Amino acid sequence: MKLRKLAALSLAAAMAAGTLAGCSSKPSGTAQSPAGEASEGTRSGEPVSADGKGQIYYLNFKPEVADVWVELAEKYTAETGIPMKVQTAAAGTYEQTLKSEVAKKEPPTLFQINGPIGYKSWAKYCRDLSDTEIYGHLIDKTMAVTDGDGVYGIPYVVEGYGIIYNDAIMRKYFALDGAKAASMDEINDFDTLKAVSEDMQARKADLGIDGVFASTSFAPGEDWRWQTHLANLPVYYEYKDDGVNDKDAIDFRYSDNFKNIFDLYLNNSCTDPKMVGAKTVEDSMAEFALGKVAMVQNGNWGWSQVAGVEGNTVKEEDVKFLPIYTGMAGEEKQGLCIGTENFFTINSQAKAEDQQASLDFLTWLFSSETGKDYITNRLGFIAPFDTFTADEKPSDPLAKEVDRYMSNGNLYSISWNFTSFPSQTFKDDFGASLLQYAQGGKEWQAVVDDMKAGWESEKAMTK
């Protein structure tokens, strides 16, 4: 993936004039039943196709927007008569759930792969999309997952993550006597972030907060912000040093930089490090939404969680992004982590009519007024297709922040290299190791050693 091109996506989308042809109107079919809970996650009603025009089963990756996808499926069925089911895998269980679902009589017709590593695992089930209309409208075709001349994964969103902060709390801190910085503009490296965070933690009573950072969540399946997103930074810089985009063995040469920010989160939080094993991402986002903390690491997708918290006190205009500084040389020019791990693919083993129905849904999703409204305003996606005009960008504060950072030519973005991580097993093991360290049961060097060994062994298994 080429991040220079990614940075221009919003502007390119705004200038493009192409429009996908919408789906033709279909006869009325079976209505969707209300969404219900399933053991694996969340699903909508079971589809039943009686007219031979196909049906859709989408296995969703993101639990935080599960309800929106179910609602969207119901809208699509209402407009077209094509039955559509949505199931959402529980956090951290997507690969496991997908393995179970593809073995069923009615498998997912539309699912996600997380880049080239995911494609290796699911190549048998990935249809070539090179001749599809949706691929034709992808602005930067280098973003797609390819194999030879074939296209097997199409990215559907550009996202960014960093440290989300409450500007009202920060302004309150800057007004205190002896503050370690006068404004957010001065926080452009790890040393300054550390000085400010530790001073804020010491003066949390004056600021009316429980801690600077939200809980470092490590409940089962809730550690992806650390074993994947935070780990992306040292891997990015190691890949950059070596001029590669993957490695069979990782040096983890910037492990101390990872430790810098990880320790800062743990030691200046609203939650004791020994208690993080019971905390979820939802807990962390609620702490931020309720004004109990000033900062939380997450991505622009987290806005829906913040906005949906009952009793939310943080104002929309005060929700901003800060890059994740770790102490790297020249990091004052570092921006957000921007990229995607979300690639749509069509199940090549599904019935032909169901494959076509799923492709028609993607066409509708990124071209129709209803579909684009959901993409932009409900899901908050920055879509990488030329069917979106300047006024069809997400309006939520975090999406605007991603766009602002992408458009800043003085900053470089951190690409999403975690799509090259060896496996979910590697990430789970690394997360477990980090939890032991956080709770005081493991030395940092042991974490480093285990991470390197796990990477190498899991990479070997993919050969």
TrEMBL record:
Residues 1-21 form the signal peptide. It comes from the Bacteria. Keywords: Signal. The keyword Signal applies. The keyword Lipid metabolism does not apply. Pfam families: SBP_bac_8. InterPro entries: Bact_solute-bd_prot1, SBP. Residues 22-48 are annotated as: Disordered. PANTHER family: ARABINOSE-BINDING PROTEIN-RELATED (PTHR43649). This is ABC transporter substrate-binding protein.
